[in-house]
Input
Amino acid sequence: MPELSKYVAVNSFGTAQLLEVIRDENLPVRKVVVASSQAVYSEGAAVCPTHRLVFPRARAVARLRAGDFGVRCPVCDAVATPAATPEEAPIGGETVYAITKADQERLVLTWGRQTGVPTVALRYSCTYGPRQSIFNPYTGVIAIFTTRLLNGRPPALYEDGEQTRDFCFVEDIARANLLAATGDRLDGQPVNIGGGRATTIREVAETLAAALGVPIAPVVTGEFRPGEMRALTSDIARARAIGYAPQTDLATGIARYLDWIRGQGAVRDYFAAAEPLLRAKRIVQPVAPPTPTPARGAG
Ligand SMILES: [Zn+2]
Output
């Protein structure tokens, strides 16, 4: 997350280069399936009592700082209830990662329309499973919480831990790629791929601790991450319509992941080392505003 220019170089520039090479070298590419992300949305969809299904904007940092975590209707500002997010939701992206994933998706789909090469953008939800990097302290909440627990430390919850995400086992993601690559019914479209179920981050921490047999409860750190979504569950109707169905539930997927990580020997807690950096770069910020310090040496 701190490496803004690296994200742009790899995701945005790298994708543009790939498309250029395919075109300039006249490569016999029959389809491009791009690994997009649910991060392209600004916030999950929600239902307002008055305006029904709405697409809330990213939450204001001032509200997060004040401990007001709910999502609001973009029309009337009423607190709205999270709902599954369809592909029609506006895409924006509130982190450098999200912005470059939106770039990648638009580059590929637009290039496909203009060149006639079939393309599909799969918007993966939170993907996890065996061989997920255990060295990246910024992404992959299941990997981060597992390494914390294996080192005898509590998983850290931002906000109140009640944020929800849609988790999808890596084999289900792989099946979706095969469907997109071998059929043509998703061509030219962005398609949500996920488990289609909301799980709170606190529930993930507790499920992992129970599965590992480690009696450590998660802790609420009193911090938040600007740009983070409150509630994001994928509406997977578009993928289901062509035969996609998630097959691995979270408990089974976590068991598979833990079987793998147990074979990895000692696992270091990379998150602990990254924490001061996250705070210094204001990627993680305290919920309560700091107490104002009296002005010194005025005049
Ligand atoms: Zn409203």
